[in-house]
Amino acid sequence: MDRKNFIKKSLLGGLSVAAGANTLKAKNVKLKKSTYDEMIQQVGFNHLPTQEIKTMKSVLHKADTRGHANHGWLDSHHTFSFANYYNPERMNFGVLRVLNDDIVAGGRGFSTHPHDNMEIISIPLSGDLEHKDSMGNVATIKAGDVQVMSAGTGVYHSEYNKNKEDEVRFLQIWVFPNKKDVTPRYDQITLDNNEALSGFQQILSPDQDDAGVWIHQDAWFHIGDLAPDYSGSYSVKKDGNGIYTFVLEGEVSINGQILKKRDGYGVWDVDDIDIKSNSEGRVLLMDVPMQLS
């Protein structure tokens, strides 16, 4: 499938890919179909596989059970249903709708395309990813950065691998907002590596004055580089939230459940979780509402 047809089928509102400088300069974006509406129609917020462990509810997504699409220029693994990968048992974890693990070939990328009413977070793992949008932002993000875009009333953007020879790897995460039709906004930060060593660093919250980037949702993300003997706990930030753990590197256990590289594990109806590292590891914790307000 060519890139244009892939984008058209990637739940981006069903629109053809926009192109050209005039599109990127547009300030008042009007979409024929809504990213939010397309995604929400497929989601039942009570439709989560449950496994009772004492009083805790959980869902385990092993790395090799994710959806996979290799388009040559893009090699992507989908934790939740996305584009041509559809699994009614894996639509979302609360308001966490998309968790894509992407590899983009040198010099290639996503042409200009629209979004609205979605909180979009990008976390580069290696390489340089160039971003351009209709708000006038032009930026490059790399490993150690976190980027957020509140699509709100509508925005167009493109993402390209800035390097011609080396691939870029990044996580693309979509979260349903708790406010619709907000003014689109863009932000990015560079993390303090010292804060993440042998512990967790907050990289996202609902508070613009708090650490990390912020979004229109009662969600908190933390990332940690863990020593082999790390042992700690994490407390849920808000009643009604669940915690989705995604292992970037190494092997960890969450409340006794062993997780390996790229495994995902969601728990809810808990106050906190116990975290132990069985090797040097890197882990992303996503604390998100289980219901859409």
Question: Would you kindly provide a written description of the structure presented here, covering whatever features stand out?
Answer:
The chain is mainly β and 293 residues long. The chain has a single domain, classed as Sandwich (Jelly Rolls), CATH 2.60.120.10. The strands form four sheets. An eight-stranded mixed β-sheet has the order 1-2-21-18-23-16-14-15, with no helix packed on it. The protein has a seven-stranded antiparallel β-sheet with strand order 3-4-5-12-7-10-13, with no helix packed on it. Strands 6-11-8-9 form a four-stranded antiparallel β-sheet. A hairpin with a 2-residue loop joins strand 1 and strand 2. The chain is globular, with a radius of gyration of 18 Å.
